[in-house]
Amino acid sequence: MPPLGTKLGDYEILGLIGKGGMASVYQARDVRLGRSVAIKFLAPELAPDDEARRRFMREARAVSALDHPNICTIHRIDEAPDGQLYLVMAHYGGETLKTRLARGVVSVGEAIDIAAQVAKGLSHAHAAGIVHGDIKPANIMITSGGLVKILDFGIAKPAGDEETITRTGLILGTVAYMAPEQLRGERGDGRSDVWALGVVLYEMLAGHRPFAASSIEAAATAILSMQPRPVTEVRPDAPAGVAAVIAACLEKDRARRIAGAAELQMHLEQLRDRPGTGPTLPLLAPARPNPSIAVLPFTNMSTDADQQFFCDGLAEELITSLAKLEGLRVVARASAFQFRGGAQDLKQIAQQLGVEAALMGSVRKSGNRIRVTAQLVNLADGYHLWSDRYDREMDDIFAVQDDIARAVVKRLQVELLEGSTRTLVRRPTTNMDAYAWYLRGRHFRYSRYNVAEASGCYEQSIRLDPAYAAAWAGVADAAVMAGYYGLKKPGEMANKARQAVNRALTLDGTLADAHEALARILFWFDWEWPSAEREYKQAIELAPANADVRISYASFLEFIGKPEAALKEIEHARDIDPLSVHACIATGIAHLMANRYDESASELTRALELHPDNGLARWYLGFGYLAQQRPNDALSELRGVPASMSTLPIYLALLGAAHAGAGRTDEAQRILDGLRERSTKEYISPYALAMTEFAVGEIDASLDHLHEAFDERSPTLMALQLPYWDAVRSDDRFVALINNMRIPGSDLPTGKV
Hints:
The chain folds into 6 domains: 7-90, Phosphorylase Kinase, domain 1; 94-273, Transferase(Phosphotransferase), domain 1 (Orthogonal Bundle); 292-418, Rossmann fold, CATH 3.40.50; 432-541, Tetratricopeptide repeat domain (Serine Threonine Protein Phosphatase 5, Tetratricopeptide repeat, Alpha Horseshoe), CATH 1.25.40; 545-643, Alpha Horseshoe (Serine Threonine Protein Phosphatase 5, Tetratricopeptide repeat); 647-753. Helix content is 49%, strand content 13%. Strands 1-2-3-4-6-5 form a 6-stranded antiparallel beta sheet, with helices on one face.
C-alpha cells in the first residue's frame, strides 16, 4: 500500500478510496495536467499470480477502449517499479449510488433516470462485446452534475464490499445482484447485466433488494427459486410500467428476460420522457412466473426393504405426470433422487435444484393394502402447503397418484388448460402385478444400472399383461442397451428391440419412451440418420420435460458432426435436470469430439464430483488423455472405474491402449490375449478386439475386426469418429468403412467431426 504523498510518475497519491479482493483504489493528482484521478493497484498478494495479472490487463485494455459519457474513462495502464500493475482513471466529484441509498429511497423519476443512464452505458459496452458482470450501487457513480458513470468492469472491488465470490467459469461478482445463470456456474452475458440493473432499480424504489437475505446462501437460494414482491406493493407511487420493466428484467429464464441493455434503455427512456404512459415497446407479460417443484423419492416404510422400487416408481410417475403440465417446471428424476433419505436440507434442495417447492412422502405396503403419505413443502420457510394420507387397495394406486398430482396443481396454482376434470395420471395397466414388475425393471435400469435384471423384469411384466405398452418399451430399451455395451450380439439385440418397440407403438403411439427407443435403434444399429432424428424429435415433442431424451438426442447430434447443436440441446436438459451426471458426460463427449480437451476434462470431472463411481466419465477422461498422448494420466483415470465395469471388454480395450501408449506393450498384449481367450467362450465385441489390436500394432487384424463389427452393425463403431483412429483414417479399408456407414460430417478434417 503506497503511503500518502508517494509519487508514481506524473501522479501523486492523495488517499485511499477503497480496497477489495482484487485491487486497491487511491485518489491521486496528475501533477503534469493538474487534474484529479483515481488509481487502481492489483492487490500485492496477487501480483505473482500470472492469471490475475493477465485478467487485470485484459479487462483494463477492453474497458479503456470504451469511450462513452456513462462509462468511467481510463487514462493509462502501467506497471509500478515494484511490479504492481495499476491503471489510472478519471476521478469524479459526487457519490456512488450505494452512498446515496444509505440516505433512503430515490424518487421514481430519479431512479428511472439513473437506470436509463446505466442502461445506455451498458448498451455501448455490450455492442463492443464487453459484459460488466458486477452491476450494483457501489459501481454506479452519480456525479455532482447528475451524470451517471459505470465504474469497475470486474477489475476491482471497492472498500466495504460484501458477499463477493469467485468460481472457475463464473464472472467475479456480488451474489445479491447475480443472475440465476451466474449462480449456477454458467457464463454470464448481456442479459445478466440486465438482471443486475433490474435489481438495482428495484432497490432504488423499494429501499431494499428484491431478494434480501441474511446470508450469501440464503440470497442465492432466493434468487434461484423465489419471486420478489411486486415493487408496487412496497412503493405504491411506482407506475405499473416501471413494475413491468423490473419484472421483465428479473425473469429467471434469461431467454424470457429483456433481450439486452439497448432494449432496456429504450423502455426506461420512454418511461422517463413520458411519465405515466407506460412502455409501448413490446414487453414480455409480467405474468406470475411458472412455479417449480422437485418430487423427492418417497421413503419406504414397509417391512420389506425390497419395496423401495415401488416407492421410487410412485415418485417417478408423479414426475412424469406433472412434467406434462404447461406452466409448471418439474425437476427430472436423476437430480431429484439425489436427495434420498435422511433429514432433508430444504435450503440445499432449493439452491441446487432451483425450485420453490418439494413433494415428499412415504409408502407402507402390506399385502394388497398401501398407505401413502404426501407433503408439499415451501422450501423458503419449510411451511407445509398441503399434506394428506391415503389408505387404499393396490388397485387404487393410480387414483392416489392422480389425487396427489391434483393437490400439487391446486396449491401451486397451475392452470389445467384442458379443464379441471382432466386426469393427470393415466392407468397404464389393469394388472397390478405387471405394474410392480415394470417398476422393478425401471429400478434396476436407472438406480442400479443392471440392464440384464431390468430386461427380466420387463419381460415378466408383459407376460402378465401383453397389452402393457410401457413394459414393451422397457424391453426394447434394455435390448438396445445390451447391444450398445456389447453384452450381447448387437444384431440379435437390435432385432429384439425392433420387435418390442413396434409392439409398444402399436399399443400406444404417443409413448415417448418407445419413440426414443426406436430413435436409438435407428441411430446405433441401423445408421438411418434422418429417420433417427425424426424419432428423437417426436419423443421430445411428446415429452419436452424428459431430460434423458434430450441428452440421448444430443449424443446423436455429436456423432453426426453437430457438436454445437448438441451442446444447446444439453443446456435444455440441464434446465430440467440441473444435477445430471449424464449431461456432464454428454457435454464432455461433445468437446472431446471437437478436440477441445480441456473443456471435455472439466465437464467429465464435474460428472465425477456428482457421482464418483461413474465409470463412463472415467472411461471418456481416459480416452481424452490418450488422444493427447498422455497415457499415464489415462491409466490413472481408468484404474478408478468401479469393479462392475472392470471386466467389460470395451474398458479392457482402452486400458490396453493406454498401456501400449505408455510403452507397456507386454501388459497390452496380455489384455489382448485375455480378450481373445474369452471370445472362444462368450461374446466379445469385435470393436474391443480391434481397438486393442490397433494399440499393439496389429493393424491388419484390427481392420478385419472393424469390418466384422460393421457386419454385426455394432454401435461402438460410432467411436470411429474419435481421434484415437487418426493414424489409419486415410487407409483405404478404413475409408471404405466410414463411407459404408454414411456418417454425416465424416468428410471433415482428420480427427474432427
